[in-house]
Write a structure and sequence with these properties.
elongated; four-stranded mixed beta sheet; single chain; TolA/TonB C-terminal domain; four-stranded antiparallel beta sheet
Length: 347
């Protein structure tokens, strides 16, 4: 049986791809499993040609059958290029590889399944890696979290990739309890962490994990964040979780004189109080600070960034109540909140 590997490698996406000429092209092996099943298919991989002419960050972006992806990546990882332009920069490209059992023009797969554009990421090789590793990972199960973290492996060395895989196993094993309890503890700790945050947790893996404490969050520089209206925050976090419980005597203070607060929400849902819109008594300040910083928010969608916002603290309806804030305290934002309050949109 003749086996044909067609490399549609002239389908590149970088305008200056001709700066680099391929000098070594290794054909992928035809997967034994695919041969036994008489399966044909195609794979499109994206990759960088680095300054040394080697391929880097090779990964599949589309395929007709997953069985072909591994061999396609292994082959392209061995390709080499050269250039006559000494100042040539690393270039990002894509290539389609087709696996056929004969040279017939008719195929048993749809090549459209393998047509894909480069992922919407940087074309600068260092920024590509940094941005990929800085992307937070989420999952609804331990298995889903690990699968979603595979994107990191595409820009890691073999040793880095092995270390990450081992670290994730050790972090999971560190938790006490049943498998389900370990999984929930793992998700509570790891959801929203990026590659670097994961490595920080790996450094603690030989230390006992105190399940009664929360995960240490990086300090957020609130001054670098724009103020996001609370109705936009509600797209990502359940604002119904932003509740307070106070003694009735204290509650009356914010029922009659409504109080606004400024706080940040990290990508993992950690709330940190920044400021109150007016000076308040110490007992009230302490009670509110403790409760706001302890909010556990339900994620509705994955936020791309940390959030800084302002909101009126929830309080019972009172026709005689009014917003009482210092005149210069975020005056632009507070005027919008006051208008929405008058129009009963804010609630």
């Amino acid at each position: 049986m003749k086996i044909w590997i067609l490399l549609i490698c002239l389908i590149t996406t970088f305008a200056n791809a001709n700066d680099w000429q391929n000098i070594k092209r290794v054909n992928p092996k035809y997967p034994v499993k695919a041969i036994k099943q008489k399966l044909e298919g195609c794979v499109t991989v994206q990759f960088f040609i680095n300054k040394q002419g080697n391929t880097q960050f090779v990964e599949p972006i589309a395929s007709s059958h997953q069985v072909f992806e591994g061999e396609a990546v292994k082959a392209v990882e061995q390709w080499q290029y050269q250039t006559e332009q000494p100042s040539s920069q690393a270039q990002r490209q894509k290539v389609m590889l087709e696996f056929r059992l004969n040279d017939s023009e008719q195929t048993t797969y749809d090549a459209d399944d393998c047509r894909a554009e480069l992922t919407h990421e940087s074309h600068e090789i260092n920024a590509f890696r940094q941005n990929r590793l800085s992307k937070p990972t989420f999952g609804n199960s331990h298995q889903e979290w690990v699968q979603n973290s595979f994107a990191y492996h595409g820009v890691l060395s073999i040793d880095e990739s092995k270390f990450l895989a081992k670290a994730l196993v050790n972090i999971f094993k560190q938790f006490p309890g049943s498998v389900d309890e370990k999984e929930q503890a793992f998700l509570s700790l790891m959801n929203g962490l990026d590659y670097f945050g994961t490595l920080q947790q790996a450094e603690l893996v030989n230390k006992p994990i105190d399940m009664t404490t929360t995960v240490t969050e990086p300090v957020i520089d609130a001054s670098s964040l724009p103020i996001t209206p609370i109705y936009q925050v509600a797209k990502y976090w359940h604002v119904g979780d932003m509740r307070i419980s106070l003694d009735e005597s204290i509650y009356q203070i914010i029922e009659e004189r409504k109080l606004a607060v400024e706080f940040t929400i990290s990508k993992r849902g950690k709330v940190t109080l920044i400021d109150f819109c007016r000076k308040i008594d110490t007992p009230l300040k302490q009670a509110l600070t403790q409760q706001i910083n302890a909010w556990q928010l339900t994620r509705l969608a994955t936020p791309k960034n940390n959030i800084r916002t302002i909101m009126l603290l929830p309080s019972p309806q009172n026709s005689a109540s009014y917003i009482d804030c210092d005149a210069t305290w975020h005056d632009v934002e507070m005027s919008k909140i006051a208008e929405m309050e008058r129009n009963a949109v804010y609630r």
